[in-house]
Specification:
This protein has one domain. 66% of the residues lie in helices and 0% in strands. The protein contains two helices and no strands. The relative contact order is 0.14. One of its GO terms (cellular component) is membrane. It holds the Pfam family EamA. Keywords: Membrane, Transmembrane, Transmembrane helix.
């Protein structure tokens, strides 16, 4: 986690948000865990949150 000191806060939050998804995918691939619907929905919410947070707001000119 020392790499967080070298990037800005928005990029660090994306990486922290992706940690649970990476752990779940590693569990599925390397440990043979079976994916279920509840963690799938939770991971979809994490991805949607990251996408929404990283979208740039369009500003109107006055």
């Amino acid at each position: 986690m020392t790499g967080i000191w070298h990037v800005n806060g928005s990029l660090a939050s994306v990486f922290c948000g992706l940690l649970p998804m990476t752990a779940a995918l590693c569990g599925i691939v390397f440990l043979g865990e079976r994916p279920t619907i509840a963690p799938g929905i939770a991971l979809a919410c994490v991805v949607a949150g990251i996408v929404l947070a990283s979208m740039k707001e369009k500003r109107r000119r006055r």
